[in-house]
């Protein structure tokens, strides 16, 4: 495998960041995960738009211009012969002696890009079964709109969910409302057939897959409500699903072990999974 680090393409095992890198010391870094399909980066414009927001939110400069970044994403996928898979991009505030204050302006940001293939058949098998999600208190900070690598709460929630037989955690806020998944956005379909997901302005990451799915839902003329829902509303839903670049549209068939709807992937989730690439860029 080949990784890109600060201007160089290196064998994965030989690639690395300084132990003084602020990604290592402080998680002072932001990232993107993009789907690769047929060698193309899916929704690259939306991913770079979100990267722009993350960088601006933490006062970090662009490591390179957008066209250069887009080229590197494609190049890393190509050099790893990834036709269907994922590319990972991470920008940190660079390497400097450990000090909480931002480093001097001459310290260059660090840029890492890696890629890997995904076993589509295995992923489709998981989607055909659907997954169980486990609810967890949302103990994250307020700026979950920033796609930072500071993901310890997500790591702990997902691991706790896994230990209870879940493949994903669903975070629940202090009002009992579901915010989002540990690494996905959360959706339900009500018994009335309304697709419901939390507004992106309130305590969630604005998922690129979420944005693209909203476009598909609009094009299909489906009933949609961007409004938070609580755990009981999720239990009572006809269908539930998650979205993420790593999961596309993933049917949720159980929440805390309780079957949702028929306890099988719902027809709408299944169709949206099949059709989402029709509207992706
Ligand atoms: N995570 N919410 C959270 C907390 C996430 O970490 C992610 C994605 C999403 C979905 O965003 P998108 O549709 O742009 O992938 C929502 C990535 C995939 C990850 O950390 O692996």
Task: State the CATH topology of the largest domain.
Answer: D-amino Acid Aminotransferase, Chain A, domain 2
Assess the beta-strand content as a share of residues: 25-35%
Low-pLDDT runs: none
CATH class of the largest domain, please? Alpha Beta
CATH superfamily of the largest domain: D-amino Acid Aminotransferase, subunit A, domain 2
**How do the SSEs run, as a string of H and E?**
EEHEEHHEEHEHEEEEHEHEEEH
Overall, the morphology is globular
- Any idea what the CATH architecture of the largest domain is? Alpha-Beta Barrel
What is Rg? Answer: 19 Å
- How many β-strand stretches? 15
Structural class: alpha+beta
Count of helical stretches:
8
Tell me roughly what share of residues is in helical segments: 25-40%
How many domains in all?
2
What ligands does this structure carry? N-(5'-phosphopyridoxyl)-D-alanine
- Sheet having the most strands: 9 strands, mixed
Q: Tell me, rounded to a whole number, the average pLDDT.
A: 97
Distance between the termini: 27 Å
Descriptors:
281 residues; alpha+beta; D-amino Acid Aminotransferase, Chain A, domain 1; D-amino Acid Aminotransferase, Chain A, domain 2; 2 domains; 6-stranded antiparallel sheet; 28% strand; binds N-(5'-phosphopyridoxyl)-D-alanine; BCAT-like_C; Probable branched-chain-amino-acid aminotransferase
